[in-house]
Design a protein that fits this description.
two-stranded parallel ribbon, 6% strand, mainly alpha, single chain
């Protein structure tokens, strides 16, 4: 079944940030450990802006996810990474095995 409406790229990126916040909350709970500081990265400036905005000023879809992100994570720990420097996107941009082996994806 095909969706009636396709999601915009920023909404897909927001969904990824939402999933990350839920996963982080669960992992921290399972480890039963408090972390002083953690950094969450996004290459979407739009998503970063939404996360740092009060949900009441956002559309319902965005507000619901932002609200939960803000409940599960501290918005001051969200940072922007330029797309070209985002190791998470390296494979999706297309690269060969040698490029991947020598990339920041493996080496940091």
């Amino acid at each position: 079944v095909a969706p009636l409406k396709t999601k915009s790229l920023p909404r897909l990126e927001l969904s990824a940030a939402h999933l990350l916040s839920k996963l982080w909350s669960r992992v921290a709970s399972i480890l039963n450990r408090h972390f002083e500081k953690i950094t969450f990265w996004t290459d979407s400036e739009i998503v970063l802006h939404w996360i740092k905005t009060h949900p009441s000023s956002l559309q319902t879809f965005v507000a619901n996810r932002v609200s939960e992100i803000q409940e599960l994570t501290d918005k001051v720990y969200w940072r922007h990474v330029p797309t070209k420097q985002n190791p998470a996107d390296q494979v999706s941009r297309g690269c060969n095995v040698d490029e991947l082996n020598n990339s920041i994806w493996f080496g940091g």
